[in-house]
Amino acid sequence: MRKKRMALAIAMAFPILAAAQEAPSKALGVVTITGGQPTSLPTQIPATMEGITREQIDQTINATDSEDALKYFPSLLVRKRYIGDYNHAILSSRASGTGNSARSAVYADGILLSNYLGNGVGGLSFPPRWGLVTPEEIERVDVMYGPFSAAYPGNSVGAVVEYTTRMPTQFEAHGKAGFVVQPFSLYNTDETFRSWEVSAGAGNRSGDWGWWFNVNHTDSESQPLTFPTRLVAKQGTPGTAGKPVTGAVLDRNNANEAWYILGTSTQYHTKQDHLKAKVSYDFTPAVRAAYTLGVWQNKSSGTSQTYLRDASGQPVFSGPININGVAFTPPLSASDFPLTEESLTHFMHGFSVKSNTQGTFDWELSASLYDYDKDIKRQTSGTNTPPGASSGGAGTIADGSGTGWNTLAARGTWRPFGAKGAHIIDAGLQQDSYNLDYLTTNAVGSWLNGPSGQRVSDVGGRTRLRSIWGQDAWAFAPDWKTVLGGRYEHWQAYDGRTRIPGGSPAVDTDWPARSENHFSPKAALSWQFNQDAVLKAALGRAVRFPTVQELYGATSTSNSQFVNDANLRPEKSWTFELGAEKPYGNVLTRGTFFAERTKDALFSQTTLEPTINKNVTRVQNVGRIDTYGLEFVANGTDVWMPGLDLQGSVTYAHSVIKENAGFVTTPGDTIGKRQPNIPDWRATAVAAYHWNPQLTTTVAARYSGQQFRTLNNSDVNGYTYQGVSKFFVVDLRAHYQATKSTSLAFGIDNVNNYAYWNFHPYPNRSYVAEVKVDL
User: Fold this and answer.
1) Domains of the chain, with CATH numbers?
2) Which locations, inside or outside the cell, does it occupy (predicted)?
């Protein structure tokens, strides 16, 4: 048992992985993946890598969604607001914030889950499709930091996450039931929200055939996520106009201005169903074909509540209001208290044929498809507010059906001097295609079930990325190795359209096609300066091309003139890291210095549009952002006493805008300011004590320091709606293996009940209970 725990800790701390049952040997700071279900990551990884296994997730993490497996990884944060968060759970890394979903890459068994149709959140949201993986099917998770492998596009600039899911070697079956309770108190809301989920999976291998399936159902209630507000000074006028109301909560916004909180909105009740089926066939002992089908369904209702009461104590949802002798504009409407109904059905397909001879040459052909088969969001509009809106009335229908992406890839690994030779060469061809098709119309009759009527907006287009890449891991001298590579990319954007019939003036534009070519070199050098210590450096360029939504998504000026910039330049980043890895007794340590310079970063901001002589807020290029920092990681088994496993990380990042022609309020107000959503300090700590082979208890903590959401850093108050706050959160978990096949777990997330924010409020203290059966 002690040997096994040591192997797991090594897998977490070092960029060298091996079979789950035995500790790996170090080999020049380059990762070699062996044993078990193979990852899709390149056979030779030239940079920092961390990993976690199924056993570690079971024992130490209250994992209700697949992204929870990343909870304690160094320098990572997923902005998960509630269980089943399908539209805002964006991954943040060392130099990429939670508004930049297109600056990380998430895969499951080599199938792309990251959504590069857009970047970030807003009217449309583009987080990875986490729901296509459940915690119960995860075999392990690997993370590569930075754009140092030529095998990945420039979206890998932040991190590459690879989920490897189960593919059994003999019959097995699994079942899980979990329940979460969150007592939530904020402003005038004091309620308890509940979530539950059930999951079942089974698989087998018989002769040349293997199969696996997993089904999952989640029923989740979120806490309120948004709040209607009115600014006291800017939206209030002393006087008697409007209906006198009570119940509003006086607070301060992120700029420290006084405002009233009028109620809650976007409180979701979400029901999700997941199905994953995998089948494999071995043509020979070294050549395997595999097919994966994923189905994800989501039905979600968003509700609103008002804090306001009139003189007779009745709730107030609409019309002009007066609070303490101050009349407020605009009057209350559906934008303050929206009701939403979403119905989504998405399909994922993946197919691959690969060889694994470990001889002179191995190859792989793969294809994947992600399809928005049905993607409908209905929402109230105009003056249609609760309670009357609950039964119908005016609203809109946003239809993204037909949206999606597909990938094609061919790759090979050549070992010209054998498996233990001086060179291991990886190369490949790749095509990634994206199609955004989003139509918004007015509902005819009723927003709940009426057909589509007059068009409100029609936004869409396509991008395509074709790439050729190669890299060579070359052991050019004893104790030395270099990895040299490059990626050439041809990017196209075409069929773009922006149609806003009701704009001022109306917009009906077909955008011209465009294309660009870029080359991104990669280089890494490692030196094993003694038997158990490695020093390595890596340098890589990454080009992150604009997404369809950034190019053609509708934005507006202050007078509703819709203007887009279809000529956005791609982001271009140079990233460097220098690290050392060494064990001290039972503790494995890593220290890494990292630096990144990004030119033409893509953010929403304001500039003067000379064609109309007006300020326009839209996605634009930020001239230059410089980031540097330090990351320290330590992991140990049987530290201080038998059975005590410790792991922790500390990251410091200094990320500053150096050049920018745009602004937020006044020209130049972003220069010298910090990049949004990058905290100065982050830290994680996990202490797991194995009382005996059956019982493990865990105390874990997460810390994030000061950060800002705006480019000019004007949001100085993080502890409020639309703010981004510091946080220190402690989680507990107890895992008990009751029998050989049955385990029980109880946990508390945010046991210290820290009230923290990332625009929306994060969950309060939550109690987690689960039971699992493994046959």
Assistant:
1) 2-202+218-774 (2.40.170.20)
2) Cell outer membrane
